[in-house]
Design goal:
- The radius of gyration is 15 Å and the shape is globular.
- The protein has about 130 residues and is mainly β.
- β1 and β2 form a beta hairpin.
- It has a single domain, classed as Immunoglobulin-like (Sandwich), CATH 2.60.40.10.
- It has no helices and nine strands.
- About 0% of the residues lie in helices and about 55% in strands.
- The protein starts with 12 loop residues before the first strand and ends with a strand.
- The strands form two sheets. A five-stranded antiparallel sheet has the order 5-2-1-9-8, with no helix packed on it. The protein has a four-stranded antiparallel sheet with strand order 4-3-6-7, with no helix packed on it.
């Protein structure tokens, strides 16, 4: 029955965009991180990212992390300036205490601006959390 289905709320797991300098390409860029601010490790973490708007779609990228330890983070990818013009969606699924959890995180188009950066959980750098 529908009333018996319990969908757990995802807490303590975040997608963040950090505006940082890329030494290799000598340019400032938005780098995406997955943050685990929980006291437990995340297992079999699957991340699917894509960008979309009414008229455009980007390629779909998939990434898998076997384990993301407690109170840690992982660098996922950088966002090219061109994809800031579309909504960037990150679908994150993982196991926590043998329970499957999932959440879609989204950066609205044109929302990543250096003027909007704030303190982030665990990271020393400042950035923007996805909603």
């Amino acid at each position: 029955m529908k009333k018996d289905i319990e969908i757990p709320k995802v807490e303590g797991v975040y997608i963040a965009a950090v505006y940082e300098y890329n030494k290799n390409f000598k340019v400032d860029e938005w780098t995406i991180y997955l943050i685990n601010d929980l006291q437990e490790s995340l297992e079999t973490v699957l991340i699917v990212s894509k960008g979309e708007s009414r008229s455009k779609k980007t390629s779909v990228l998939r990434k898998k992390l076997e384990v993301l330890p407690a109170k840690s983070y992982a660098k996922l990818e950088f966002l090219h300036e061109d994809v800031l013009q579309v909504d960037n969606i990150f679908q994150v699924s993982y196991f926590l205490n043998n329970q499957l959890l999932h959440k879609d995180f989204k950066f609205q188009k044109n929302s990543l601006k250096p003027s909007q950066i704030k303190k982030l959980p665990l990271l020393e750098d400042k950035g923007i959390l996805a909603k």
